[in-house]
Amino acid sequence: MNRGPLFRLYNHRRPLPARLLRSRPVYNFSATFNMLPESAIPRAVLVFAVLCISCLLLYRAADSLRFLSFPSGSSVSFPHIFPSLVFDNDSVPVRNEQKLENVLEDAAMEDKTVILTTLNEAWAAPNSIVDLFLASFRIGVHTRRLLNHLVIIALDQKAYTRCMELHIHCFALVTEGIDFRKEAYFMTPAYVKMMWRRIDFLRSVLELGYNFVFTDADVMWFRDPFPRFYSDADFQIACDHFTGSSVNIENKPNGGFNFVRSNNRSIEFYKFWYSSRETYPGYHDQDVLNFIKFDSFVEDLGLKMRFLDTAYFGGLCEPSKDLSLVCTMHANCCFGLDSKLHDLRVMLQDWMHFLSLPPSMKRSLIVSWRVPQNCSLDSLRRYDSPKNSSVHQGLQK
């Protein structure tokens, strides 16, 4: 899933060796100067020097700018993409970010569906969340090909640079005045702002006409989930707790994994969801969704909402019980990056062990997980804000 000058481009032009300087032809300007009146010579020298210096500066600027290729018709200016981005000798070159439409078009399936995740510096570090996330696609069942349709939304410069090292579809999303680089602990102001920024961004994707599967980067993809999605739903979402019915709005949804189809109903729903942050100040997007799912406005929209079964779309809050069925597993109900990393690694080990079993044993045994271990709902509750305690009491029930 982290946004003054933007670049300091250094022109490493070495001075020409003395032997090359000596081999250059020597031009005699004395004849030219002799044709001028004596009083004009200093002025001519000055004009000539100014012209030479101007030409040299223009050449150097043009030579530097050739490394930056702006998309045609783009109104994007670099200072608004990465305000603190600086080029130095050791940095990985960052190419100009394409417009969102171009990135989505490159990654989209035939029906204009894309897979989206967000990434900041904390989760982009080597051997961190993003590495496990991408690894799950590579070892999952029929999931490797889905990487062609995954767009990583970088929230800061280091996340974008790391994305460019690992993946083909990257987009830089910046929120001016907010630093999303560090780990955003649950229910801190940075966490809440990040969640609402995500909702607003997803609305813009829908308005561009693209369906999307949004997935947190701490969701492991073990099987292609598309066969398990409902064909008639506008908005379908994974759950922290699943009641057993996909249409029961008493389900406890989790915003870290959902599939949304672009149409007027879903666009208006996302606008309503985002605007509801003012109705419920201080709450994050998932809590607000738990409030507005009962609102008559959603029913009047005609939005077809479905909740995904944790048997297929599980998480540490409510793990999938059978590895023969699981599509995704989410490291939810977990506080702290180290705890997440520990349980995600155990999760991947469990999956690899399952894949190594003979087919007969996969059919005859119900193989489940060794997680949660370091993650738990109790660890989350300690850091929850008082105003949200009722929501998480509901989750516990």
State the main characteristics:
about 400 residues, alpha/beta, Spore Coat Polysaccharide Biosynthesis Protein SpsA, Chain A, seven-stranded mixed β-sheet, disordered N terminus, glycosyltransferase activity, Glycosyltransferase, membrane, transmembrane helix
Describe the structure.
This is Glycosyltransferase. It is an enzyme of class 2 (transferase). It is built from 15 helices and 10 strands. The protein has 397 residues and is of the alpha/beta class. The protein has a domain of 214 residues: Spore Coat Polysaccharide Biosynthesis Protein SpsA, Chain A, CATH 3.90.550. It has a 7-stranded mixed beta sheet with strand order 3-2-1-4-7-6-8.
In order across it, which strands form the biggest sheet?
3-2-1-4-7-6-8
Cα end-to-end separation: 31 Å
Total helix count? Answer: 15
CATH architecture of one domain: Alpha-Beta Complex
Largest sheet data: 7 strands, mixed
**CATH overall fold name of one domain:** Spore Coat Polysaccharide Biosynthesis Protein SpsA, Chain A
Task: Give the DSSP E fraction (strand runs of 2 or more residues).
Answer: 5-15%
Pick out the low-confidence regions. 1-41, 58-97, 179-187, 382-397
- SSE ordering: HHHHEHHEHEHEEEEHHHEEEHHHH
> What is the radius of gyration?
28 Å
Q: What is the general shape? A: globular
Give the helix proportion (percent range): 25-40%
Q: Please write the CATH class name of one domain.
A: Alpha Beta
Structural class: alpha/beta
How many β-strand runs? 10
Give the averaged pLDDT, no decimals. 77
